[in-house]
Write a structure and sequence with these properties.
Blueprint lengths: L4 E8 L4 H14 L3 E7 L8 E9 L12 E6 L2 H7 L3 E10 L6 H4 L9 H8 L1 E5 L1 H8 L5 H13 L6 H8 L5 H12 L3
Parallel strand pairs: 1-4, 4-5, 5-6
Antiparallel strand pairs: 1-3, 2-3
Length: 191
């Protein structure tokens, strides 16, 4: 076992943030970790922000991640990475999907989507940028981008010894199992 690790997953409704968090939590539980998880959906069905907080280790007392305490932020969208960056530890890492999902204010031309977000994030913290949407699309379904990002996270944390294929089988519909296992493997290949 190890010290408590705190993972913050953030995205936009419909990106599979909660599914990826559930797969992560189940895999960690099956390996003997104490795991606590909380999730906030908000207006997720309307394209709003979604976040989940997962903490694991030998003994975890709360799922809540304080500002400046996340070991890893997994951002399913670039602007969500910026929105939650203050939750990251000084020596933490951001795993960020390179996709842009414009919020309503951008769609109705009241604001512009900020430029060079990943470059700006990279100036202050360790950043692993992944075009998870493109990888998932190449596998046949863009919705598997969440599991690509999960694979990147698992590799970064050194948790490859868990039977992730079994956990994925337990959490996705049968017809999408092979797609998601392949997406997870592609994520594991990313440095």
């Amino acid at each position: 076992m190890q010290e408590v690790k705190s993972i913050l997953m953030v995205g936009v409704g419909g990106q599979g943030t909660i599914l990826a968090s559930n797969v992560l939590a189940e895999g960690l539980l099956k390996s003997g970790y104490d795991v606590k998880m909380s999730e906030v959906h908000g207006m997720s069905q309307r394209g709003g922000s979604v976040n989940t907080q997962i903490r694991f280790g030998e003994k975890v007392y709360s799922p809540v991640i304080e500002v400046g305490a996340a070991d890893v932020i997994v951002a399913f969208e670039k602007m969500e990475a910026v929105r939650w960056l203050n939750y990251l530890k000084k020596d933490g890492v951001v795993i960020v999907n390179t996709v842009e999902i414009p919020p309503l204010s951008v769609l109705i031309s009241k604001e512009e989507y900020p430029k060079n977000l990943i470059e700006e994030i990279s100036k202050s913290v360790k950043t692993i940028a992944v075009d998870a949407d493109k990888i998932a699309e190449s596998l046949g379904n863009i919705k598997a981008q969440n599991i690509v990002l999960l694979g990147v996270l698992v590799k970064y944390l050194g948790l490859q010894g868990i039977d992730w294929e079994e956990v994925i089988k337990n959490n996705v519909p049968q017809k999408f199992v092979e797609l998601n296992i392949n997406a997870f493997k592609k994520g594991l290949e990313i440095n």
